[in-house]
Design goal:
Elements: H1 2-22, H2 25-35, H3 37-42, H4 45-52, H5 56-69
Length: 70
């Protein structure tokens, strides 16, 4: 049981790491919106920006660009 949980956790961290290298900040933001939309409503933007690896200003630009696209 503990080994399964540990392996699952490690796989999660590996996916996060690969996503951070492979995906653009816009793609990471879209993935976060798709996978965990409740986080966007509950967590302050500066924490989300830090999680995505961008500044708050850049996150605002990303959000505005997505609004303009849609």
């Amino acid at each position: 049981m503990i080994l399964e949980v540990s392996a699952e956790r490690q796989l999660h961290y590996m996916r996060e790491f690969v996503s951070f290298i492979r995906n653009t900040p816009e793609e990471r933001h879209l993935n976060l919106l798709k996978e965990k939309p409740q986080i966007i409503k509950r967590v302050p933007l500066h924490f989300i920006a830090s999680y995505l690896g961008v500044s708050r200003v850049h996150l605002s630009r990303i959000k505005n660009a997505l609004v303009r696209k849609n």
